[in-house]
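Note on ligand handling. Small-molecule inputs were canonicalized before submission; formal charges were left as drawn, and no protonation-state enumeration was performed. Where a ligand contained multiple stereocentres, the stereochemistry in the source SMILES was retained. For adenosine-5'-triphosphate, this procedure yielded the string shown in the input block below.
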Amino acid sequence: MRMFYQQFLSFFLIIAITLLILGVTFLGLSRSMFYQDTWDLLEDYAYVVRTQAIDVKKSNGTTKIVVDKKRLNIVEEMLSSRHIKIRIYTGKDKILYPSKSKQIINKKRWNELKAGQSIRVKSNSQRFRFKAVDSPKETTSIYVPYLDINGKLLAVVSVGTVMDNIEDNLTDIKRNLLYSFFTAVVLGTIASFILTRYFTNRITRLQKATRQVADGDFDVHITTGHRDELDDLAEDFNLMIEALKESRIEFDRQEERRRNFMTNAAHEMRTPLTTIKGILEGMAYGLFEDEAECKESIDLMRKETSRLIRLVNDNLDYEKSQAGELVLQKENLDASSIIRDVLRQMNDMAQKEGDRFENKLPPVLGVYADHDRFIQIITNIIKNAIQFTDNGVITIRGKKAGNNTIIQISDTGIGMTESQMAKIWDRYYKADQSRKVAKFGESGIGLSIVYQLLKLHKADVNVSSEPGVGTTFTLTFKGQE
Ligand SMILES: Nc1ncnc2c1ncn2[C@@H]1O[C@H](COP(=O)(O)OP(=O)(O)OP(=O)(O)O)[C@@H](O)[C@H]1O
Ligand SMILES: [Mg+2]
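Structure output:
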């Protein structure tokens, strides 16, 4: 069943059941109040009859009940408009008044009356109406015992109303109740229809938005009033869309970078591969005659293959660290001696660029790091410094700050703008995309690996740079805990 009908039905049922219960309760209450009032009235009449029309005469030790029929007639006359019937019994089948009546009192009732209890009887005409004639017709009446001072039953006064039945008096109430029931049902139906529509509309709105998102449109926002759980759901939905949108943007960004890298990598690989192919073909056709030329070509091929291997390795390293597969083996090292070795190895490279190293490290500088990865970090940063500095100075400083080790690598190179600096840790990012001539790789992956490695070391990094002035990388390694 659709939600609309479910909701509608439940609202409707609640209204109908509530009204029914209220109606039945009210009717029952009115009925018993009616009976109570009638009995109270009849009791008053019975009292009047007993005091005004019944006399007890004693002669020769016997007690005789005398009824003043004239008075009784007057009383009955007076109450005729109220359809009051009076009977006076001296025995359960002995009727003193009216003389023609044959109505008798059953044994059970007579015993109760003997015990001094009044009896109240409800009209059973309703049952007669439905033809369930299982007992004689009774009017709503009251039987009041008349006892002497010894508690002996002298007579019973019965006053009944043949105002046919109280049910008739209740008919009006029933009719009014029925009218109000139908009015309430109609109004309730309208109200529940509006309420249900309101709820289902809100749900439909959510459903529409979900479909829109499923179709790839993330520009959805549901306005909410923070009123109920549905609003909370809509709020969560908005948050989910925001998250999806962000991951979609991130995905697109990654995809864009991956595409850029593929283009760059293909471009970079093509040059060495073409060179290698050219040399190999030359060799095949015996173009290199003298040995020196041959050696030079083989050297070139070796260099080009190293470049290709480095490109592949760098990417593998990056993927490994991203996947959490790179495990560090940290130990206490002497950063000064390691960096000295790195500088020695890179001296040639620096000289080619007209750069000079200035080593301001203390003789010994303890650092807690993975040996090979520490070298990788330092090498990458120094290589960049050489790459982006022509005829300048590259200064390396280092010091201890408490348990931490701070290493600073500064150059007097081309520097970077703020926006360039913000992106240097991204994979495949190169500030100058047009720099096609690859001096030392230039695939834009070096710093992204440095960043991953520093993260694994839980080390901090800070970069300050000014275009045309130079760049400084400050690394802070934490000591052993
Ligand atoms: N010392 C520096 N001075 C100026 N720019 C720098 C410096 N270090 C890095 N950059 C900028 O950050 C970019 C990213 O550096 P990264 O080391 O990741 O890539 P790359 O050096 O271009 O290529 P790769 O290191 O993979 O061979 C560089 O292309 C450059 O634009
Ligand atoms: Mg680099």
